[in-house]
Amino acid sequence: MHARRARTTVTAALAVLTTLTLTTGGACATENDTGSGTPPTGGAPTASEEAAPPAALTQPAGIEELSAGWSMPWGADWLPDGSALYTERDTHRIVHLTPDGTRTVLGTVPDVVHGGEGGLLGLAISPGFAEDRTLYVFHTAANDNRIARLTWDGDTLGGYEPILTGIAKAAIHNGGRLAFGPDGHLYATTGDAADPPLAQDRDALEGKILRITTAGEPAPGNPFGTPVYSLGHRNPQGLAWDDEGRLWSSELGQDTWDELNLIEPGNNYGWPQCEGVCGEPGFTDPKETWSTATASPSGLAYADGSLYMAALRGQRLWHIPLEGADTGTPQAYYQGEIGRQRTVLATPDGTALWVSTSNGAGSDTVHRVTLQ
Prior knowledge:
Layout lengths: L40 E2 L17 E11 L2 E6 L5 E5 L4 E5 L5 E6 L11 E6 L3 H4 L1 E7 L4 E8 L4 E11 L10 E3 L5 E5 L17 E5 L15 E4 L4 E6 L5 E5 L5 E7 L10 E2 L12 E4 L5 E7 L2 E6 L5 E7 L2 E2 L3 E3 L7 E6 L5 E6 L6 E8 L1
Parallel strand pairs: 1-18
Antiparallel strand pairs: 2-27, 3-4, 4-5, 5-6, 7-8, 8-9, 9-10, 11-12, 12-13, 13-14, 15-16, 16-17, 17-19, 20-21, 21-22, 22-23, 22-24, 25-26, 26-27
Protein name: PQQ-dependent sugar dehydrogenase
Pfam families: GSDH
InterPro entries: 6-blade_b-propeller_TolB-like (IPR011042), Glc/Sorbosone_DH (IPR012938), Quinoprot_gluc/sorb_DH_b-prop (IPR011041)
């Protein structure tokens, strides 16, 4: 999801469609909004969402429905021709979507077992797709979560082959996002599988961001010589790289704080010892936090100086301007207009976003958001 993007022409700042004061509260940030226990030590938000939008940065300027009738679209990535492939979590289907809204089901992925938050989740298209016709998926199987590769020759979806297995599965906290980084390696988010101590176990695959080769091996330069790239995550679901190659990740908190993290190799992001800002040696604090009621984040995309974060329970699109390795004031758009937002992609030319919802079988949509 790091597709190469052209810089867009920036116009005068746009009035905020929705401005919100950060709220605290005891609602859980699992995607089904059900309680999961008492929160650990937490911290205050790193910024208010109340200021005027920043000038001279691309912002959302309008939203329109591109395609309707979906069933829980989850992962997505761009093909070289500017169309996209999507997964559907519960149907196990891979679906092709063109910029004019034409939708074609390519087929189903074998060995997928849906249950709770599990199923067919992330999708990443090989950087060399034009030659190798390969795509990668993250899915729940009978006994684990796994990463597998397939081929699509334009007609047939086949060649299914698991490349990394044994990631613990659960009804909740499966992670599941896949994306190729600028370095050509495959990154994956994994949740703690409802077993929080796993996030602090450096040898476990759960509660982590993983970095692997296309063969499923630990990528060269990984901090521990394993697939683990960073640890201490509860349920990260968004991955995006900015123009300087910095990796950002959005993460579902428990009862109080959701997070946006700047990911560094080998760093520990605190879960379950901390939710939100920790302020303790050995743990890396988030760059931004939100109450679970206003976020419960999923997908993340970067375009022209800003991150865009899809919110499930918050039912809004967060625009987060970047100032180098720091963040400006987040702004919320389209609150309650299209329901729960799952995945956001920045178009390859950087002029728009494709935002998919997560509202239920047959009732989901993909929207195009024009950037100005």
